[in-house]
């Protein structure tokens, strides 16, 4: 397996698939669209002609398993990594990179953990046709939808999704609360709209039932209330 930043690889499995002649197709086999599951997504991507993606930053881990052809990933300060048929590259959450397909005639399987969603894949052409189409496809899935949540009125109150024990510790210390993952991902898990915390709970706190009570904290300049 190749990992960014970069080292060697070999075959991950023997897979034989038939290529459909078209510029590019993405068939989701499991995920938010195909199986209505946010846990993991698996797709088959076929690229018929040379093309490239914009620069991407992922909020999930991704494995790209190349079945046919090759892809070249641009990353860092002018660096690139070639991934050949039979090789797998691992892109860690938070990595900024650009997938390119210099030859076309390429097939690969992307595996995303947690599952791919447009809001978890930051594309540096946010208004492009691909981004719009992805939003349309994923807008049909069940459950929480970011676009269905109203904007907040002017407010100085923030709601936090957190472990109750950590919130209580911050209150006792009269200190600002930051989640344990703040240094790694930069997210405070706070919002002025409580309903948006459903997304936070599904993304960050599914395993918290094993470690303690999860709740919503409310903070304002005047007070800290649980």
Automatic annotation (TrEMBL):
Gene3D superfamilies membership: Jelly Rolls (2.60.120.10), Protein of unknown function DUF952 (3.20.170.20)
Origin: domain of life: Eukaryota
Pfam families hit by this protein: EutQ (PF06249)
Xref: InterPro entries: EutQ, RmlC-like_jellyroll, RmlC_Cupin_sf
Protein's recorded name: RPS15 protein
Species per Swiss-Prot/TrEMBL record: Symbiodinium necroappetens
